[in-house]
Amino acid sequence: MELSKVTLEIFSKLEHKWLSHCKPNNKTRILSIDGGGTTAIVAGEALIHLEDQIRLRTSDPHAQVADFFDIVAGTGIGAILAAMITAGDSFGRPLYTAREAVRLVTERNSELYKFKSGGVFRRRRKLSSRSMDNVLKQVFQRKEDGRLLTLKDTCKPLLIPCFDLKSSAPFVFSRADASESPSFDFELWKVCRATSATPSHFKPFDLASVDGKTLCSAVDGGLVMNNPTAAAVTHVLHNKHDFPSVNGVDDLLVLSLGNGSSNTKACENRTCSTPSVVDIVLNGVSETIDQMLGNAFCWNRTDYVRIQASGLGSEAMRKEEVLKERGLESLPFGGKRLLTETNGNRIDSFVQRLVATGKPSPPSSPCKDSTVNPLANGR
Predict the structure, then answer these.
(1) 67 given a catalytic annotation
(2) Which domains does the chain carry?
(3) DSSP per residue, 209-237
(4) Which intervals hold domain PNPLA (predicted)?
(5) What is the pTM of this model?
């Protein structure tokens, strides 16, 4: 009799464990990549490690970052990476792996951010718009007919912000809007160009939707949304058409990739240059959003992970330091605490949860008829 009781208890526990394991997880997965800087060392290394860990844990050498996220957001150079890993090929698969996207941005960085030749007395050298335009067009161009990819050609929902001088308000490019109307569909290279138009380096970038009905005079999205995580969370919470099962933050799993803290020492003598002020704004926006999200997820901290390199600007950070640096976590109502886990450890733990939930059902790109040139001769 006692043996039967023990056996029943054992099988009850095993059954409970099995049912818990098989219970469907409906969490919507968000990936957000900060703007700031021109090298994307922090976000780039985090992206590569993220994809490597996904492949390791799934035993699938062809798995890509976009396969395990429901929506991707990015600003500035983070938007370029976000658009590259979500841009779809003719089969609806991501055009670039994380490693390919980061490598391309690294190898062609001097073309993306090429200084203009100017007078010796200029205090601040401008960057070449034409050089950046040419690279971005090649990245997002169809092979056979030269057609340029648009927001509708992404294999996963994409969000990219800028600030529109015409309306004096933020403007968020999204695949959801692009799918509804050509008046909100824009060429991807123009979207990336718009969010990268930092006032201290570029003139405002004028662009129009594919039907010419929506016009925008854009400057850097980082001025208002350098960390686009909050925009992505808000989009998911209010977009019942694409995310019907999301009712609150408890239904979300969020990974936010920083791009290194800006160097504000230039203002210690109380005479801040315009570029220094821009750096402070970018860093301040990112930290404020991190604090807000930390408060929102204070009861389920493992559902929100922020990867950032603290105390070192993205331009000075060496690749090998990014994943080894100990992580920071925002505390409710202000402040941060230094964690025992490194950035690499935190990504590993996040991937374990990510993979356990399985691949999202693929919300295919509204347009799957394009074949894109992945810059085979431009690397």
Answers:
(1) no
(2) 28-112+125-264+272-357 (3.40.1090.10)
(3) -TTS--EEEEE-THHHHSSTHHHHHHHHH
(4) 31-233
(5) 0.84
